[in-house]
Amino acid sequence: MHTLKFTAESISNGMVERDFTVGDVPGVLWSPASGATDRAPLVLMGHGGGNHKKHPAMSGRARLLVAGCGFHVAVIDAPGHGDRPRTAHDEEEIAALFRAREAGEPEGAIVVRYNSHLAELAVPEWRTVLDALQELPEIGADGPVGYYGINMGTAIGVPLMAVEPRITAAVLGQHWPDVLAEKAKQITVPIEFDMQWDDEHIPRESALALFDAFASKEKTLHANSGKHKELPRFEADSAVRFFARHLGRSVAAPA
Amino acid sequence: MHTLKFTAESISNGMVERDFTVGDVPGVLWSPASGATDRAPLVLMGHGGGNHKKHPAMSGRARLLVAGCGFHVAVIDAPGHGDRPRTAHDEEEIAALFRAREAGEPEGAIVVRYNSHLAELAVPEWRTVLDALQELPEIGADGPVGYYGINMGTAIGVPLMAVEPRITAAVLGQHWPDVLAEKAKQITVPIEFDMQWDDEHIPRESALALFDAFASKEKTLHANSGKHKELPRFEADSAVRFFARHLGRSVAAPA
User: Fold this and answer.
1) Which residues on B lie below 8 Å from A237 (Cβ)?
2) Is residue B254 part of a domain?
3) How many angstroms separate the CA atoms of B170 and B192, rounded?
4) Which domain holds residue B22?
5) Is residue A252 included in any domain, yes or no?
6) pLDDT over threshold 70, residue A24
7) How far apart are CA B122 and CA B78, in angstroms?
8) pLDDT value for A253
9) Residue B43 domain-assigned?
């Protein structure tokens, strides 16, 4: 069993930020500055491809979740990302992706293949990290757990949730259904799913097919006009309200 | 020109409720109890087929808009609905709809046809009522105006907005694209559009086609699992936030 070791601690924007490791996996745990050790629900977040655990998209969403609901929020670096080493295979796949982009060729097949590989590595890592996080008294073994990850965060989140009953609600989106749709059919917890209506990488029908695949009785699709990278900021606010509803918290008034 | 005449006034649930008429059209104007005569944005609401201006779906949404943002909210009875007389044509169409329902036949063609007829009557009525409402000092001729109507409220709202530039944001949804899609192509203001993913009356592809038709640069589709009548309550909260963003108000903390 791997235990969680805190390696650094700082305070900013009303959050306690604690860096940690579980085995070789580096992560960050954000908590309310006014109650970092108070018991509260946990939201796991998966970062996007090419990003890392403290990318502004992660710290920004964490701030909304921590300030809005007092949640604890944990992110780990995916394999080959952030503070983790890249393998020769990682380098090859990234080079293939960049070649496709420069040539103006579709990148879907490469992203699907590489993300699927990373998910195979990341799923057991997440389960071990969740074991270790639940050893902390402020999280506990029986507290509610959500998952929030778009793009690569969904490529990892869907297979994780297919085998992980501790995650009881998730905000996902912006991925192809290949590989993931079969896993999504095993997921029954409430889902909010984001897609971009004019996504230049993920065909509209593909995004709709992945949403359709979830077996969840309660699921909501949010489709916004705009291209792949134009997901509106207000969807992060919506995610906070989703987790408030499903993990049992109310949302504080906006600052 | 028709002027607005107030015919009754009461206070409940923190709202002033003022009944009014504009010519033959009866309506209701809900305003904050603590500032019924304060200038604030106006939201017009269209009720559903078979309902009326004070149906609980209307008063409930009004309460969220008034308490949450201090908006004024106006609803009028559609032709043949609420306090308005039914014509022989209304009776025939309603009988045709009930026959189809009892026989388990699709009702879409009848609803589309009848709603289109009602919209032809209702659009000029709404424009006259809006003229009259804008004579009130608490609304004014230059204040922001939104429109919120699902089902028949969308059948009337889409042709209204196609000719009415004063409406600058709308929450719509749950209707067939026949008749409406061509009008939706003329609409460019921000739209939030609700559909039910498992709607037993409106085929999924039809709902997606109507959303797709809007020319709006900013548009958001909210698709929820469930049947036609199972639109989740939280979509009304989302509508309040949509109007707060687009009509220039912030949302108060939930009571």
Assistant:
1) 241
2) no
3) 6
4) 4-246
5) no
6) yes
7) 6
8) 55
9) yes
Distance CA B155, CA B158 (A): 6
Structure tokens at B168: 């600058």
Is there a contact between A219 and B225 if contact means CB atoms under 8 Å apart?
Answer: yes
The CATH number for A32's domain is: 3.40.50.1820
What is the count of structural domains for chain A? 1
Per-residue pLDDT tens for B116-138?
999 999 999 999 999 999 999 99
Q: pTM value? A: 0.94
Contact A15, A33 (CB under 8 A): yes
Q: What would the mean pLDDT of B14-37 be, rounded to a whole number?
A: 94
Task: Give the up-direction half-sphere exposure of residue B127: CA atoms within 13 A in the CB hemisphere.
Answer: 12
Whether residue A88 is contained in a domain is answered as no
**Quick check: A220 and B223 CB within 8 A?**
yes
Taking any CB pair shorter than 8 Å as contact, residues of chain A touching chain B are 197, 208, 211-212, 216-225, 232, 234, 237-238, 241, 245, 250-254
Identity of the residue numbered B12: S
CA distance B15 to chain A (A): 22
Q: How far is CA B217 from CA A222, A224, B187, in A?
A: 16, 10, 10
Q: What ipTM was estimated for this complex?
A: 0.93
CB contact under 8 A, A217 and B225: yes
Question: What is the spatial distance between Cα B221 and Cα B59, in angstroms, rounded to a whole number?
Answer: 24
**What whole-number distance in Å separates Cα of residue A167 and Cα of residue A165?**
5
Q: Which residues of B touch A254 (CB under 8 A)?
A: 250-251
CA distance B254 to chain A (A): 8
Task: Using CB atoms, pick whichever of B217, B222, B254 lies closest to residue A220.
Answer: B222
Residue A94 Cα, gap to closest chain B Cα (Å):
33
